[in-house]
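Quick review question:
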């Protein structure tokens, strides 16, 4: 599936940029689903998102500046309000009603991020995270960085309890006990919930300190929520009662790349384990994932009827995601779009072929 060519994904909310990057008062560029957008802060605490393309001569509005709640194009000075309406042309100061507009997008603010939906009719809502603001929980922002992996590959990886033994052998993977435990998958309105236990080996003193467990061998109880299409929350509960909930959005930059937006919730305090230590542990683990994920084919097949990939027991969550997305696409009258290379290599027959 090539996500930039499936219109459906334009109708989801995505966390796009931490608010603090916009609070300094400069417009910022982002590429969402292959589309260049500009984000900026409007005076009353709201944030605006619109096409990063001036309707005069296509200049990047993100190269302009803000003036009185308007964004000013750096090429000839046309100014736009937060709805995308051109409200000022220095070359025609007498113009009262200017008939030019750029497309603007829905925005919202949650969890320290500006969220954007490219179309005016979102098909999801921004996920409600029970830990956020709950007594005893703290929020730690971890990563905001691009990676060369598609959103669905990242999501499947987070719900694949087999990879941990091998990919994470340097941090918590247990290669000795790689036989998967039984897991339960429940379909929900927002995606799926996966529940299960994962045996781990806390590899060194740093990991043991962050999980507040002196032992090497341990078991993580996992409750992982997939929020369609590219967000997860993996709530890890350790035997000592520590909860470490990882929230990750693989916000789609284009078909091959995602912006990794990750934050965590923990039910302990800075005095017990520092935020820096938590971030460092998840840095090590995330680096292990990214190394593998950046080598995978970004074009994940949704339709099961071919021999492109082989599957095993622990792939069930990923396959449930594929089925769910395919069903949604079909319900909207969309065909799955694949790369010509994969269509040729695997003799796949679909009616829609990417350019
Ligand atoms: S290109 Fe923006 S004002 Fe001319
Ligand atoms: Fe992993």
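Suggested answer, residue by residue:
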């Amino acid at each position: 599936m090539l996500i930039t060519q499936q219109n459906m994904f334009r109708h989801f909310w995505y966390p796009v940029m931490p608010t603090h990057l916009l609070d300094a008062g400069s417009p910022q560029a982002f590429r969402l689903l292959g589309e260049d957008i500009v984000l900026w802060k409007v005076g009353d605490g709201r944030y605006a998102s619109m096409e990063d393309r001036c309707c005069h001569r296509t200049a990047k509005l993100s190269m302009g500046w803000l003036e009185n709640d308007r964004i000013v194009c750096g090429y000839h000075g046309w100014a736009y309000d937060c709805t995308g309406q051109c409200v000022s042309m220095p070359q025609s100061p007498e113009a009262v009603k200017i008939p030019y507009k750029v497309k603007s997008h829905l925005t919202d603010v949650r969890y320290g991020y500006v969220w954007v939906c490219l179309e005016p009719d979102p098909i999801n809502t921004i996920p409600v995270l029970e830990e956020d603001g709950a007594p005893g929980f703290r929020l730690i922002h971890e990563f905001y960085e691009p990676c060369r992996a598609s959103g669905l590959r990242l999501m499947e990886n987070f719900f694949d309890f087999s990879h941990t033994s091998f990919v994470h052998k340097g941090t918590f993977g247990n290669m000795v006990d790689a036989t998967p435990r039984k897991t339960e998958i429940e379909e929900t309105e927002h995606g799926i919930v996966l529940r299960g236990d994962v045996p781990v080996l806390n590899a060194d003193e740093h990991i043991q300190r962050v999980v507040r467990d002196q032992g090497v061998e341990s078991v993580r109880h996992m409750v992982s929520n997939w929020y369609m299409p590219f967000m997860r929350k993996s709530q890890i509960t350790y035997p000592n009662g520590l909860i470490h909930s990882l929230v990750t959005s693989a916000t789609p930059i284009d078909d091959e790349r995602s912006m990794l937006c990750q934050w965590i919730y923990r039910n302990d305090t800075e005095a017990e384990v520092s935020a820096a230590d938590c971030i460092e542990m998840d840095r090590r683990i995330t680096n292990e994932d990214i190394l593998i994920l950046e080598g995978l084919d970004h074009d994940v097949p949704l339709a099961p009827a071919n021999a492109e990939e082989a599957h095993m027991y622990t792939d069930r969550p990923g396959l449930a995601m594929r089925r769910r997305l395919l069903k949604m696409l079909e319900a909207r009258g969309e065909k799955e779009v694949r790369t010509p290379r994969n269509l040729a290599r695997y003799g796949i027959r679909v009616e829609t072929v990417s350019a």
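Why it works: The pocket of FE2/S2 (inorganic) cluster (ligand 1) is lined by residues 54, 56-57, 59, 73, 75-76, 78 (CB under 6 Å). The two ends are 13 Å apart (CA to CA).
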